[in-house]
Design goal:
The chain is an alpha+beta fold and 447 residues long. The chain is built from 9 helices and 19 strands. Helix 4 crosses helix 5 and helix 7 packs antiparallel against helix 8.
Length: 447
């Protein structure tokens, strides 16, 4: 195996013997291989691929496609029936919830057990236990049997252990789908840092997450490797397959992109009144600003608040998708700042940047100077898109310089969280208010 690769799979296959009746197992044992009392089920067949050191590989496919079986073989949990598999380095695998945990053991005892299995010595476990406990954030439940844990607490404990065992290879299999928003953001920050030094295998049904996180991707379909390539291309092919199934022989992929048409006016969606009164009303619940959230920067200034305001500049606790809002960010300068830049991002629960902006271009021709002790107020007025149901957060930042060359004074991750409880958006990261929607039926074919 070349030192360039940390995982090398050649012709991997995994077969299970399926017995229709319990007594068939005994018959099979007594037949000494002369007769078959079972049918063969191949969960995986003839799968070959390589993963380079430091690469992030996405694994995508439908439920039952064989993704988890593949990961269990890479992790050493399952032996392959056929083929050759070589893995170099320490693996930390986050597979199904609670894998490797003894339900009768306390959280503390399971931390020791899991970390020891992953190669840490007793002294190393003792040294890192407080960091693991702080990362997990489950408080007094650390001393309770894990059989009492919720699925989210399982995920917290499992991820906390994996984050502190100095793994060379990290495998994440949909475990983040059960975590709450602050913890998922913490995990995503760890994953992004881990990518700088280790090899990541990331499994998800979310093609946006695959595209955002991964360098390459493989597509497992019905136990076989259907395609591999760039994360963007594989995600596109996978989605095209999903949309194509059930659409008949007429399903095609084609067309060309047109130049965007810019509209300089607020969009009033013709469905607004209907959506407002329906169960799909895109109501957004806004949580409190967290001044103690994760941050970094030189602290030449401090962000004091980040509030969402309505058109009358009253602070919002709830708002509806499609409405006009103002994001107001207040900053206190601790030193003279010659070329200030304030900005923001809206992120989804996986840490993907959905949209955002900053003040640089608006004030590029007329520089603003801030003196120590002064307060800066940045306001961004925009029309909210419609958002799919789920958890979101707002990053806010204050820097000095230009967009390409600047000093970051204060960057706050997750300064505010908000939650969308219902939505009519079924596909995509966001939905935009429509200018008009029309459906015309004609008896004459168009020229």
């Amino acid at each position: 195996m070349s030192s360039e690769f940390v995982i090398s799979a050649k012709g991997l296959g995994k077969k299970y013997n399926i017995f229709r009746k319990p007594e068939d197992r005994l018959k099979q044992m007594l037949s000494f291989g002369q007769k078959k009392y079972y049918s063969e089920y191949w969960a995986l067949r003839d799968v070959s691929f390589d993963v380079r050191k430091g690469e992030t590989l996405g694994v995508i496919g439908r439920n039952g496609a064989g993704k988890s079986t593949l990961l269990q073989m890479i992790s050493g949990i399952l032996p392959p029936t056929l083929g050759e598999l070589k893995v170099e380095g320490r693996i930390a695998a986050l597979l199904e919830l609670g894998a490797g945990f003894n339900p009768e053991f306390t959280g503390r005892e399971n931390v020791v057990l899991a970390a020891t299995i992953l190669g840490l010595s007793k002294d190393q476990v003792d040294e890192r236990f407080e960091q693991i406990a702080e990362f997990a954030g489950i408080g007094d439940f650390m001393e309770q049997p894990v059989k009492l844990y919720s699925s989210g607490m399982y995920a917290r404990l499992a991820f906390a252990v994996a984050a502190h065992v100095d793994a060379d290879i990290l495998i994440v299999d949909e475990i983040l789908s059960v975590g709450d928003a602050p913890f998922v953001q913490k995990c995503m920050r760890f994953i992004n840092r881990f990518k700088e030094r280790g090899t990541l295998l990331f499994v998800s049904h979310d093609t946006s997450a695959i595209t955002n996180l991964c360098d390459r991707a493989i597509w497992i379909d019905k136990g076989e490797l259907r395609a591999e390539g760039s994360a963007k291309d594989i995600s596109y092919s996978y989605l095209a397959s999903l949309y194509g199934d059930g659409e008949g022989d007429g399903f095609q992929i084609g067309g060309a992109r047109k130049a965007p048409v810019h509209q300089g006016r607020k969009v009033v969606d013709p469905r607004k009144d209907m959506l407002q009164s329906s169960v799909a009303r895109n109501e957004i619940q806004i949580f409190d600003f967290d001044p103690n959230g994760p941050w970094f920067g030189n602290r030449g200034a401090t962000i004091l608040s980040a509030n969402l305001l309505d058109e009358h500049e009253a602070e919002l606790q709830t708002v509806v998708g499609g409405e006009e809002v103002i994001l107001e960010v207040r900053i206190e300068a601790h030193k003279d700042i010659a070329h200030p830049i304030a900005g923001f991002y809206i992120k989804d629960r996986l840490g993907q940047n959905l949209f955002g902006d900053n003040t640089f271009l608006t004030y590029a021709a007329s520089r603003v100077h801030v003196r120590a002790g002064e307060t800066v107020i940045a306001r961004f007025r925009f029309q909210l898109p419609y958002l799919p149901s789920g958890d979101y957060s707002i990053n806010v930042a204050f820097a000095e310089g230009t967009q390409t060359d600047h000093v970051q004074h204060h960057w706050m991750d997750d300064a505010r969280f908000f939650k969308v409880s219902a939505s009519h958006v079924a596909k995509g990261l966001v939905g935009i208010p429509m200018l008009d929607i029309d459906l015309t039926v004609t008896s004459q074919p168009e020229a």
